[in-house]
Specification:
One of its GO terms (molecular function) is monoatomic ion channel activity. With 332 residues, this protein is mostly helical. Among the domains are: 86 residues; 137 residues, Helix Hairpins, CATH 1.10.287. The chain is 77% helix and 0% strand. The N and C termini lie far apart (109 Å).
Length: 332
């Protein structure tokens, strides 16, 4: 146990030094939710294993608040692992789905809480003789548990009438209230939550490739930002020269025996892609030119029809002995 304690303390100190180094290099960009959880986990792990009383030093037992802190630290450490998995390109998309559903639930949480409080207060008023509904906080907890199917209908509504703790007072109100609870909470609200979750997951799946690429870019940028500046300068390349016509001995040997090198294949694939793009662009231009010619033909036909119509109108007006100037004067 002593070895484990000092191992935890040593690892915690090393990780805190690493976080301090990241804070010095990244400054204000370091302040994120993920880094806050990491600092809390490392510091709380050290506090948990340190002996703060003679009893803890002799027996190895922790104080009550240390056990509570240990529970929070264990939960936070696994959540930190979940946040780290989110940065992986293959499994991170599922973590993104989870957080999107969590955001949707947080927006819906106010309505959810109002329904729970409403039913819990009503159950407390009618069933306060039972231990699980004896107070408002316990009634709220019991109502929330009842949403997942733990109704205990027989124990609540068909208990022993001779016992005060199991007797049902006001059955005319309790039965309809329980029926409303089953319809509203377990059917409507739960199905609404499932529908919102499915909709969020569908939207994330439609943009899965973009999400995956964005997470990869974020991971690369974070790793690069955590590196010292002199290491980034050593690994940075301001220019990259490609000489496609210059062949090395290996390339000449491969071409001698009829094997294409990888660079030549890449150049050929790039040229092929450019040719395909140019051909598609030409086809698009040809189709647009054809549409323009068709539009010009339609305009010419409309102009000819207009000329013929005007000639017919002139002939009709001549037979009626009406002049254009008179029509214009009357119109004015």
């Amino acid at each position: 146990l002593v070895t484990v304690k000092w191992a935890v303390i040593s690892l915690g100190i090393v990780q805190l030094i690493k976080e301090l180094f990241q804070f010095i290099t990244r400054r204000i960009r370091y302040i994120t939710f993920d880094n806050a959880i990491e600092c809390f986990v490392y510091s709380s792990a050290i506090v948990i294993v340190v002996d703060l009383s003679p009893c803890s030093h002799q027996t190895g037992l922790r104080m009550n608040w240390q056990w509570s802190l240990a529970a929070i630290c264990a939960f936070a450490s696994w959540m930190n692992l979940l946040l780290l998995i989110r940065k992986l390109p293959k499994f991170g998309i599922y973590v993104v789905m989870f957080f999107d559903v969590l955001k949707t639930f947080s927006r819906f949480f106010l309505i959810f809480v109002l329904f729970i409080v409403a039913f819990s207060v009503a159950f407390h008023a009618i069933l306060q003789n039972r231990p699980e509904f004896s107070s408002v906080p316990s009634s709220v907890l019991k109502t929330a548990v009842m949403m997942i199917g733990e109704f205990e209908f027989t124990a609540i509504f068909h208990g022993d009438d001779n016992s005060h703790l199991e007797r049902l007072f006001g059955p005319t109100i309790a039965y309809p209230l329980f029926l409303f609870f089953c319809v509203i909470m377990t059917i409507l609200l739960m199905n609404l939550l499932v529908g919102l979750a499915v909709d969020d997951i569908k939207s994330v799946q439609e943009k899965a490739e973009l999400k995956r690429l964005s997470m990869q870019v974020d991971l690369v940028l974070q790793v690069e930002a955590s590196m010292p500046s002199y290491i980034r300068k050593l690994t940075h390349r301001s220019e990259y020269v490609i000489l496609p016509n210059e062949k090395s001995f290996w390339k000449r040997l491969c071409s001698r025996f009829g094997f294409d090198s990888s660079s030549e294949k890449e150049v050929d694939s790039e040229n092929k892609g450019e040719q395909e793009f140019i051909s598609e662009f030409r086809e698009e231009l040809c189709s647009q030119n054809a549409q323009l010619r068709m539009l010009q033909t339609n305009v010419d036909n409309m102009y000819e029809r207009q000329v013929r119509t005007e000639a017919m109108i002139r002939e009709v007006l001549k037979k009626l002995e009406i002049k254009f100037e008179e029509i214009d004067a009357k119109g004015k």
